[in-house]
Amino acid sequence: MKKSTIWLLAIIMALTFSCLLFMQITYIENMVRMRNEQFSEAVKRSLYAVSSQLEQDETKRYLAEDIEENQKRLLSIERGGSSVTQQWSFVSPDGSISTLNVQEFTFSLPEKVTVPKPNSGSSITDTYKDMQEVLKNQYLYQKGLLENVILNILATASNRPILERVDTEQLSNYLKAELRNNGLNIPFQYAIYNPKNRIVYKSQEYNAEANATKYSITLFPNDPSKRQNQLKVYFPTKKDYIFSSVRFSIPSFTFTFVLLITFIFTIVKLFRQKKLTEMKNDFVNNMTHEFKTPISTISLAAQMLKDPAVSKSPEMFNHISTVINDETKRLRFQVEKVLQMSMFERQKTMMKLSIVDINDLIAGVLSTFKLKVEQFGGTIDAELDAEDALVEVDEMHFTNVIFNLLDNAVKYAREGVALQLMVRTAIEGNKVVISVQDNGIGIKKEDLKKIFEKFYRVSTGNVHNVKGFGLGLAYVHKIVTDLKGSIRAESELNHGTTFIITLPLKNK
User: Fold this and answer.
1) What is the C-alpha to C-alpha distance for residues 221 and 198, in angstroms, rounded to an integer?
2) Residue 47 pLDDT > 80, yes or no?
3) Domain count across the chain
4) pLDDT at position 111, please?
5) pLDDT at site 115
6) From CA 479, how far away is CA 340, in angstroms rounded?
7) Do 425 and 357 form a contact (C-beta atoms < 8 A)?
């Protein structure tokens, strides 16, 4: 699959998932907002109904007191009167009907007093007018009674403490009933605040510092503004109630998000697989080239040995034998490089660990590698300052690690500049630090993070024709990591590179 095709699929799927997630998030936000608005409206209706109910209770209480006083006064005036009981009805916001009995007194006329009989000419119209007059008098009496009660409330009620005007138990019952009628059957806490914004009464678990939305309403709004008390209510489980309406959409949102993550992971894997495929193809091409040259040389040398003239010339025979031997070693070395790749398919490299002095091991490698460096006109120096640098390593594998680092320095030397290699050892705490420094072409910053990846090879342009499989530094990194150490690279382009290895010290 082409990289452009992968990018096209990635963009289309990313846009699709993004739009789907956006729509789901928008839907959830709208649902939460609408639910919150409905909740607030229901609470406001409930609080208004409670406030109205408290006002009605107070009005009925004052009305009953006033009627009782009037009854006592009338009874003291005339004992011989008769009474008529009337009922006053009050419709509460919750739909219930409350009644108040009002007793009116009528007085009997003296026995000797004669009431003139109506003239025979009296008509039904006159009788109707008399009845209207009676009803009018009753209305004026009742009106005066109510006005007296209202004036009494306005004059005296606001002066009384709020807890004398409000029954807290009844207030709690009103709140429960009204909230339930509006579909809010959830826990709540409330408090009554005086005009100075101080709490005069609160429910058992009310917390004034709670981080929750508090709904408030004025109790007895007809009171003077300086004497008005506030009822504040909040709901500890409001968030759960609000989000309960959108919980059904959370699984779909979660599944969509998981699919998006899975898709992203798949696309990343595709790109890595694409890159790995390209690296493997490059590896096969390089391997073919590296194998082809020594095989061709050996084949040519073998054909020359068949020539009788060669057998008669000892010098020519020795030369051809030397060529065959060198090319065989070269071919064996390339085979070993290929075999190194098999280690990366295993969880851990099989190693034979032993305690060695790291200075002695490095010194042995330098003495062997010195000849190769001198062939290229370079120099190699060492500052092995680490004392008692005992480490537990596989001697063969760690020797190959140092060889690979030095060999890379030779491959990537700058043209026209004499190669200079420096190997150092030092003790830092309970670890030994090994550094291999060169003055080669250096490595770009964007390549530093990738140089330890399998099959990765730094591009050298047209300056050098460096052949390889991209396994050397990957092999070095794996060996050092398996030895519980670490390796990093520091480089400056056209100035050189330094590889720094850190290994734990081994106690004697």
Assistant:
1) 18
2) yes
3) 3
4) 43
5) 42
6) 11
7) no
